[in-house]
Predict the structure.
Amino acid sequence: MRIVRLANFIAPRSGGLRTALNELGAGYAAAGHEAVLVIPGAEPGVSETPSGRIITVPGPLVPGTGGYRVITARRSMRRLLDDLKPDRLEVSDRFTLRWTGRWARSRGVRSMMVSHESLDGLLRMFAPVGARVLSDRLNRSSAEWFDTVVCTTEWAAAEFRRLGVPNLVRVPLGVDLARFHPDRHDEELRRSFAAPGETLLVHCSRLSPEKRPDRPVEALRELRRRGVPAVLVVAGDGPRRPALEAQASDLPVRFLGHVTDRDLLARLLATADVAIAPGPVETFGLAALECLAGGTPVVVARESALPEVIGEAGLASGDGPVAYADAVSTLLARDEKTRREMARRQAERYGWPASVDGFLRAHELPNLIGGRSR
């Protein structure tokens, strides 16, 4: 079966969404299906990858997002979809591609919308007046246009459950448990960031407003005010980076930018003492799960979906530098071997094979191994 997937708000330096799309595409291919991904870019193009065919269509830049593009040309997209003749349509965009659910229904194609963000949460952050009314209206229409709505956590599903959406399915994402592993701990890498006796903190995220990347910087400031010899490494890029560099000018913070080397990222995450993931509207938090897989506990925003993902392998924090510093200190007070083992055990609950199986079930498709249905 041909599964055509559409995604917007993706850039060459995208993190979690691109990882999820790649892993699911590779899983679909391994399960005996044809995966095709359509994304926006500066120029049109087609490439064959281990995750399936990737078709890039021209899409304009979204101002102020640090490189995100969107597909806006509906007429040409309709023609492309008609040419591709999908057996299933999977849409990873809550906004500009919602209309494709109606296209699929008009063609008799089973469709799925994957909720990678909380519409209710984003609207409350950036347009609080009337946010609930607007998000309910848009979520209700999305659920009506698509055959299935997939949410990766119960927290993400809440805005649909409140509406009594009948076609809602919860399927967690996964983590590469081989690449992100405690064995990647690298003392030589640690020495390049932290002196002996210093605590190494890491923040791995896109540096955009909804991720609240200023929280780790201010948590570091509070820890050092208390006399904790901590340093911070920030892996990620985005529109907030210049402001963050200015904010951290008097602190021991290293900004690495977007880390394209996934093995280097795995070593960094496995080497840190504690990671901080403060995004309040995260619906899953793949980077936090990669930290856990490397044996590093995570401090997360209490109001996000991440407490559901990290379990007892980290701590949920209230907002503000004092709360985050308290949570970091509490984790550091745990026996190091114990806290690292707890982190790894929690991550092992989330593997990509199980996630692929769940997505295929949501598509009502079999996982074909050697020509047999599993």
